[in-house]
Specification:
The chain is mainly α and about 425 residues long. Helices cover about 65% and strands about 0% of the residues.
């Protein structure tokens, strides 16, 4: 009986004790848990803020990529000068990376080349060994282009994943990547113009790529190069601001006395670019072989008007009668084509632009010498002036010696070097934000 009377009491005590333990544990958990700090309004805990400056590795990579573009531009010039650009008559992004290795494969590739105007008009006596040389020149140019694409897009993806680029640099990198892809397509579009079988139906036509497409291809390469150099230098500019290392440079560069020099540097970059672009038209038309004297052209400072502005290059060129000239009622239209299609006009335009560029560089150099400038700007000005002198000398020598490959390639490299100095000057004169 005693045991029966004690059972309800023990049961009630156990239930109360268990409930008490659960309550204490819950209280302990609630007091030991540290609440996270409240997030700032408008911020996201999962997305870190963008960096104030891109990592310096990004800057070095951009400048290294620019150096590679510099190299391929010079190689492309040599490819054209050796008349190798039309040796590969197909475009295969993947299969085109493997060159022929056996005698049979070389014979097949050579037979393909024989079907096109360049062989039929100019190279019917070419041997297989001679074909191998021009093939490897063009193949090397194409492989280099693919490598530029890979060594740009893959590191760019890595840097973006790591968050090492500021939003501004990231946009520039995306734009450059798109331009590289476009450049590859533009290169094949250019080559196709020299493979057109319609050239065989045009009396006296020389199988070569369109000077318009050649200029577009070269101009696109210059734009890519300029964007890479400018973005790379901007990365180091950002880091200098972040490290507060500008010092006295800020006072000198932000001076109102430097404004004219700053604006002139921007204009000079454009002038160098268009001068180089006009050189592409000279190359595309072989206009450098027409007049091999300087400063005169055919004994005159300015060629005769009828040579510069010839109706042969107008829309009505078919009306020009051999030995009889033009009909009395001739009304020329489309004479503007002389600017891009008349070898005499094209060479004259390039000379004028080149001397204008040289004059502009000299004026900027003299303007800069009168100002208090940081050492980096003074060194760049001296470099710019020196490169301009070298480039003029190379251009004149290329004319006088009838466009030898070595001088012509050096002249093209000189144009990129001059552009680099102009971009660098523009960068060093950039106004420093306060």
């Amino acid at each position: 009986m005693l045991s029966l009377s004690l059972c309800p009491l023990r049961s009630t005590s156990s239930a109360a004790w268990a409930q008490s333990r659960r309550g204490f544990a819950a209280t302990l958990r609630s007091t030991s848990t540290v609440a996270p700090p409240p997030a700032a309004e408008g911020s996201s805990q999962s997305t870190p803020p963008p960096p104030k400056a891109s990592d310096k590795a990004v800057g070095y990579w951009l400048l290294a990529s620019a150096a590679s573009v510099f190299g391929i531009v010079v190689w492309g010039g040599v490819t054209r000068l050796t008349e190798s650009g039309l040796s590969i008559v197909e475009w295969n992004l993947i299969r085109g990376m493997k060159p022929p290795t056996s005698q049979a494969e070389w014979e097949v590739e050579f037979d393909k080349y024989k079907q096109f105007p360049e062989y039929k008009r100019l190279n019917q006596h070419m041997t297989l060994d001679e074909f191998k040389f021009i093939f490897f020149m063009e193949w090397g140019h194409r492989i280099w282009g693919r490598l530029i694409g890979l060594t740009f897009i893959l590191p760019a993806s890595f840097f973006a994943y790591k968050g090492w680029m500021t939003p501004g640099i990231k946009k520039s990198v995306i734009g450059i990547a798109a331009m590289i892809c476009f450049q590859g397509a533009l290169g094949w579009y250019m080559v196709k113009s020299g493979l057109d079988h319609a050239l065989m139906e045009t009396p006296g036509a020389v199988p070569r790529v369109s000077q318009y497409r050649l200029s577009a291809h070269l101009g696109s390469a210059f734009v890519i190069y300029t964007a890479m150099v400018a973005a790379g230098l901007n990365v180091f500019f950002q880091n200098s601001l972040l490290d507060n290392r500008m010092g006295q440079v800020t006072r000198l560069v932000n001076s109102s006395a430097v404004n004219s020099l700053r604006h002139s540097a921007h204009g000079l970059v454009m002038l160098v670019f268009f001068t180089a672009l006009s050189g592409a038209f000279v190359a595309g038309l072989d206009a450098g072989l027409l007049y091999d004297t300087f400063p005169l052209m055919g004994g005159r400072l300015v060629p005769p008007t009828e040579d510069l502005w010839s109706p042969e290059f107008s829309n009505e060129k078919k009306q020009v009668l051999p030995g009889k000239g033009l009909p009395t009622d001739f009304q020329p239209t489309g004479m503007w084509k002389n600017i891009f299609e008349n070898p005499t006009t094209v060479q004259f335009n390039h000379r004028v632009l080149a001397m204008t560029t040289f004059t502009a560089v000299t004026a900027i150099y003299l303007m800069g010498r009168r100002l208090a400038l940081p050492r980096s700007v003074r060194v760049t000005l001296n470099t710019l002036m020196s490169l301009a002198l070298v480039q003029v000398g190379l251009g004149i020598s290329t004319l006088l010696y009838s466009v030898p490959t070595e001088l012509a390639a050096a002249h093209q490299a000189g144009s990129l070097s001059l552009l680099t100095a102009a971009i660098t000057l523009m960068h060093f004169l950039k106004r420093v934000p306060k």
